[in-house]
Design goal:
Radius of gyration: 26 Å
Strand order of the largest sheet: 1-2
Number of helices: 7
Shape: elongated
Number of strands: 8
Number of domains: 2
């Protein structure tokens, strides 16, 4: 599956103008496109992820959870280039990653597209049990919540709060969730909406594009005396 992330219209027009003016042979033209994808677009994607920002320099929206660490760290590793000489083009696409949604595999292109453009998804709980929770035990967070809500178990003639260890080792994850909802008086939602904000990682700023084009023209033996600032569109 392919994800959007090609050059923007302005950059594409400038690339076509450069190719036309140089009258590159077909093989040289294809080599230039491949190098722009490899050392321009993909290199920029790695830099964007490293800096956690969009090509224009804007910081990505943070996570909705308290989880720390850099986002989208593995996506640039999944970027590949497909040669398309029949139409004098190349395509950058995502493949691999072993992403999953429950028991179903999710193509890397779907993950990349949702992150690049953002998306809103409504999730239905469904009537069947979540197979991912089979055999899963209560978490420490659930144990803390249960104790805070006053959950107790009978020990002989007395009622006592179980320890974190007792809860996490003996209580199933689903049961802990059910008890938390009952003790807190909340009703389980039948569906909910997940908003994934756009975190654009695939793309180049005009300045980066100009530099990449000049550099790769030099690399293939054309435009040896061309500087980035000499290319139309330099800002």
């Amino acid at each position: 599956m392919f994800a959007g992330g090609e050059l923007n219209k302005k950059q594409l027009a400038e690339l076509r103008e450069a190719l036309a003016s140089l009258e590159l042979p077909p093989r040289k033209r294809q080599r230039l496109l491949w190098r722009l994808a490899k050392y321009g677009l993909i290199a920029a994607a790695k830099r964007n992820v490293r800096n956690q920002q969009s090509p224009d320099g804007a910081a990505w929206p943070g996570r909705a959870t308290k989880r720390k660490g850099k986002m989208l760290r593995n996506l640039p590793k999944l970027l590949h280039i497909r040669e398309m000489p029949e139409i004098a083009a190349v395509r950058v696409y995502l493949q691999g990653g072993a992403y999953r949604n429950g028991n179903r595999s999710v193509p890397a292109g779907v993950v990349g597209y949702s992150q690049q453009n953002g998306m809103t998804v409504r999730v239905n709980r469904g009537g069947q049990k979540n197979q991912d929770q089979t055999g899963k035990m209560a978490t420490v967070a659930q144990a803390k919540k249960l104790r805070a809500l006053g959950y107790t178990v009978k020990r002989g003639k007395r009622w006592k709060k179980p320890t974190y260890r007792e809860i996490t080792e003996k209580m199933p994850y689903a049961q802990a969730g059910l008890l938390i909802r009952k003790l807190s008086g909340t009703v389980a939602k039948s569906s909910w909406v997940i908003d994934v904000p756009a975190r654009e990682f695939l793309g180049m700023s005009d300045d980066d594009f100009n530099k990449a084009l000049a550099r790769q023209l030099q690399a293939i033996g054309f435009g040896w005396d061309v500087n980035a600032q000499d290319i139309k569109g330099k800002t």
